[in-house]
Amino acid sequence: MLALTKNRHQWGFACGRISALEGRLMGQDFFLSLAGLERIEDLFQRLQDTSLREHMNPGAVTWEDWSTIIDAYVHNLVLSLRRDSPRTAVADLFTLSDDYLNLKRAVQHRGAYPFLSNVFSEDRLNDVAAGNVSLLPDVIRATMAQLAAGAEAANPMVVDMTLDGAYLRHYLALGSSLEAPFIEYWVRERVLARAVVVLWRAARSGHPLKMYQQHFLPLGPFNGVLGEMIAAGDPRGWGALIPGRLGDLYQEALEAPEEEQVVRFEQITSDYLTDLARRVKMQTMGPERVAGFLWGLWIEAFNLKLVISGRLNKIDPDILKSRVRACYV
Can you list the pairs that 119-124 forms with residues at least 24 positions away whose Cβ atoms lie under 8 Å? Predict the structure, then answer.
């Protein structure tokens, strides 16, 4: 496994904050217990003893209320750590998905940008909506110029696959910009896992995978394996093409019932990434420590949304417990 960077003193303050913040993260047992509560009122009462309490609205009873509360809590903490970090790219890794939801609205000329933004300001999004992509990051500028100028923007499928590819290229660029080999390795594993899910869902929906060759790729070091997957077509044979640990996890996911395979792959790859991230917890000064904590925070938000939404929708507690993802703490 790649070694962590050492003596990056400029990260000392952010890492010092994380030493305190890690104690506020919720563990696996908390989520399993939360999923097993019979009364929704007891669930909400239990949440008042967590870090969410500073953002809670006493009248929050719907899923939309709780989704907003969780998103605000996570976003504010990420931006706070972003301000305390010498390189913003670490925090940007964990806000970028919402930025791309806003970017999609700009491409489709849908006006308001309701998702929490960080990387793309409203002015930048308005520029994109007007066809001006000159101030977007280099790694996505050409793609976005082509999308903004062509008729493809009227095709929702093309927009989705194009933005999925742009997002993952942008994510790879953020990871490599930090000059931390461990983060770059972790980012590559996450990107490949996400790319596999994109193609797998497309294949299951009957979408023509050849279109992904044109609109989703290129994707840096993964052009070869993803191109082979597209050419092969049938997802049942992809496990032999996917390299390393992710290939093993893909094969494991294929053992689940067909309708559960993609969700199973997402869960076990998430747990794999969490296991990798835990290796940075003893670092005293470096971007890896910040990235590991922010991944832990992202997993915490996922588990909170899973359990709260599941209980509000009366999903069986045992099903929820089986889908809780491994926690950072």
Answer: 119/92, 119/95
Contact yes or no for 286/180 (Cβ under 8 A): yes
3 vs 279: CA distance, rounded Å: 10
At 224, the amino acid letter reads: G
The Cα–Cα gap between 231 and 267 comes to 26
Residue 121: how many other CB atoms lie within 10 Å:
14
Q: Which has more confidence, 40 or 33? A: 33
User: What is each CA distance from 166 to 27, 43, 92, 97, in whole angstroms?
Assistant: 33, 39, 15, 11
CA separation (Å) from 125 to 104, 135, 209, 325, 329?
9, 10, 29, 34, 37
pLDDT level of residue 40 (50, 70, 90 thresholds): confident
Rounded to two decimals, the pTM is 0.94
Tell me how far apart the alpha carbons of residues 323 and 97 are, in angstroms, rounded to a whole number: 22
The pLDDT, as a whole number, for residue 286 is 95
Q: How many CA atoms lie within 13 A of 91 on its CB side?
A: 20
Q: Which of 1, 4, 3 is nearest to 15 (CA)?
A: 4
Which residue has tokens 């563990």?
27
CB < 8 Å & 24+ apart, contacts of 241-248 = 242/192, 242/196, 244/189, 245/189, 245/272, 246/189, 246/192, 246/193, 246/196, 246/272
Helix, strand, or coil here: 329?
coil
Any idea how long the chain is? 329
User: How far apart, in whole angstroms, are the C-alpha atoms of residue 151 and residue 35?
Assistant: 46
Token code pair at residue 250: 């893909």
Name the residue type at position 146.
Q
Distance of CA 51 to the CA centre of its chain: 21
| 276 dihedral zone (left: phi>0; alpha: psi -120 to 50; beta) | alpha
Residue with tokens 């996911």: 253
